[in-house]
């Protein structure tokens, strides 16, 4: 049946014309309202359903559409089609975010920033769900929900709690590498365009010969890394809470398209047995001297979403979205994230969230998942082939996409992730890399964030900072004493 042409007027959701959108249907001019006014009821009912749950973390975000262009040949490392030839372009959508703040949080807060990219490749969506930091607070996923509780609101005061944060961090010294980045000049980028992005985890590349390489992804901003001081950010938040949305949307609307260069670090598979650090530990970087950055391509953001909710709020990124040629690693945190995101999306968005326009792959999705809420599409090209295996030409598995086996070994146990792990050297290397000014500001930011924290927790944290670098601990003590806090003395009462 050909589509009927309708005149352009307001209608109900069922398409019937609306004659009056200003006055309710009432008995007499003073009311009451008649139950029969289904148009009023439809309007109110929809308003009641306008909000969906905000993301449990990374609720506040900003995003845009863009293009990825390959500039260098890395096909010897990966058979991923997105990288198959120089000049090849792939459409993508990004979402940047803060971690702890709610949907209405101010943009210019000191926090880690999320850096998510969904590449619509010809072999399915590849999601890079990273941060603007190469490391993370934890290396065992068992610790994630507790960590996030310390970043969110206290159950009684309903306020963010510096005590909870420092209690947790001082009991979890593996976090202090990431805390050092967070408290450094890089803690408040001036906009999402002025920060780098990192896949953070170690992933796999798999080439056409089925050889596996370990890989880390880096997005290097071409806009320069520019950051706010605490004072600048506080002033800015007083003027606007939406500085990132204004900057990103405004820049793209003005036709100035921000760009990042994608680079990778590649580690031959067997090197992982001999590196002096665990290359699957999310609290560690791979030194660039050992594994230099290899250029791959350029990401450009060149189109604002027409509808923020449709494209950005409904965007569902997941580390489980990989494509042939890109795979996982034994990183324990990555393993948990492979589960957590799709589970979160089914709750936040609904069963068939991947059929929503922003999440739908640009290649056919030939699965057998049936029915359920949101089943507004029909992907059974032959209605008799609605189970698998079948004799009616339905889509079947494609063994040529098998990955090489992942080499693992070891006894199943709850292994102590702290045993034999050095939580201090890399954090110290970073601190020593800062110039004197950034060292001082980092110490001041740490001290400032400790306001109101009980002395015994501060003391416990200082022991760790001393171990990272004695100058780090001393700098924080000095900043604390300038801040008028009670006399601080490090103790050795670690648990
Ligand atoms: C968002 C879980 C670690 C980056 C989320 C969401 C969940 C989650 C449930 C909300 C998803 C949604 O509703 O759309 C976890 C768990 C982790 C973990 C269980 C560790 C065990 C990490 C790490 C990174 C990261 C290590 C970065 C390297 C992000 C980003 C988002 C996010 C960028 C926002 C995605 C978007 O823009 O929609 N995480 N996360 N997370 N997470 Fe994680």
From TrEMBL:
Keywords: Heme, Hydrogen peroxide, Iron, Metal-binding, Oxidoreductase, Peroxidase
Biological process terms in GO annotation: hydrogen peroxide catabolic process; response to hydrogen peroxide
A GO cellular-component term linked to this record: cytoplasm
Cofactors named for this entry: heme
Catalytic activity: 2 H2O2 = O2 + 2 H2O
GO molecular function: catalase activity; heme binding; metal ion binding
One matching Pfam family: Catalase
Domain of life (superkingdom): Bacteria
Domain Catalase core: 11-396
InterPro entries: Catalase (IPR018028), Catalase_3 (IPR040333), Catalase_clade1/3 (IPR024711), Catalase_core (IPR011614), Catalase_haem_BS (IPR002226), Catalase_immune_responsive (IPR010582), Catalase_sf (IPR020835)
PANTHER family noted in UniProt: CATALASE
Family recorded in the similarity comment: Belongs to the catalase family.
Function text: Decomposes hydrogen peroxide into water and oxygen; serves to protect cells from the toxic effects of hydrogen peroxide.
Designated name of the protein: catalase
Organism: Asticcacaulis benevestitus DSM 16100 = ATCC BAA-896
């Amino acid at each position: 049946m050909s589509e009927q042409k309708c005149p352009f007027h307001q209608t109900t959701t069922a398409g019937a014309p609306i004659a009056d959108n200003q006055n309710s249907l009432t008995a007499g001019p003073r009311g009451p309202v008649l139950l029969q006014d289904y148009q009023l009821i439809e309007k109110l009912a929809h308003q009641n359903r306008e909000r969906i749950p905000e993301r449990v973390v990374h609720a506040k975000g900003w995003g845009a559409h863009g293009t990825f262009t390959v500039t260098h040949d890395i096909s010897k490392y990966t058979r991923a089609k997105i990288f198959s030839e120089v000049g090849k372009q792939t459409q993508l959508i990004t979402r940047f975010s803060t971690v702890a703040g709610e949907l209405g949080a101010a943009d210019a807060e000191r926090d880690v920033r999320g850096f998510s990219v969904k590449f619509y490749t010809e072999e399915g969506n590849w999601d890079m769900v990273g941060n603007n930091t190469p490391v993370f607070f934890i290396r065992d996923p068992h610790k994630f929900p507790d960590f996030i509780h310390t970043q969110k609101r206290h159950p009684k005061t309903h306020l963010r709690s510096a005590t909870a944060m420092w209690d947790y961090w001082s009991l979890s010294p593996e976090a202090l590498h990431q805390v050092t980045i967070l408290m450094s000049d890089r803690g408040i980028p001036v906009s999402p365009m002025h920060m780098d992005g990192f896949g953070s985890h170690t992933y796999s590349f798999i080439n056409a010969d089925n050889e596996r390489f370990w890989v880390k992804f880096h997005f290097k901003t071409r806009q320069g890394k520019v950051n706010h001081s605490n004072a600048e950010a506080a002033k800015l938040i007083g003027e606007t809470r939406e500085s990132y949305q204004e900057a990103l949307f405004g820049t793209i609307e003005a036709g100035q398209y921000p760009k990042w260069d994608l680079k990778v670090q590649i580690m031959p598979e067997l090197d992982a047995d001999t590196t002096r650090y665990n290359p699957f530990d999310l609290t560690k970087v791979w030194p660039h001297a050992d594994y230099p950055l290899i250029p791959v391509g350029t990401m450009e953001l060149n189109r604002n979403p027409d509808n923020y909710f449709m494209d950005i709020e409904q965007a569902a990124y997941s580390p489980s979205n990989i494509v042939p040629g890109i795979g996982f690693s034994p990183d324990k945190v990555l393993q948990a994230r492979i589960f957590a995101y799709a589970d979160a999306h089914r709750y936040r968005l609904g069963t068939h969230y991947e059929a929503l326009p922003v999440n739908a792959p640009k290649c056919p999705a030939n699965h057998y998942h049936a029915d359920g809420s949101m089943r507004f599409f029909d992907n059974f090209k032959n209605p008799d082939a609605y189970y698998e295996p079948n004799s009616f030409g339905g889509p079947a598995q494609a063994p040529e996409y098998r990955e090489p086996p992942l080499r693992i070994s070891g006894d199943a146990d709850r292994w102590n992730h702290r045993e034999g792990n050095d939580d201090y050297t890399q954090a110290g290397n970073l601190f020593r890399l800062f110039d004197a000014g950034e060292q001082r500001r980092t110490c001041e930011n740490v001290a400032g964030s400790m306001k109101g924290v009980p002395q015994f927790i501060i003391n416990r944290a200082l022991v760790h900072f001393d171990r990272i670098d004695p100058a780090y601990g001393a700098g924080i003590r000095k900043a604390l004493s300038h801040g008028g806090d009670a006399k601080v003395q490090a103790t050795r009462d670690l648990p």
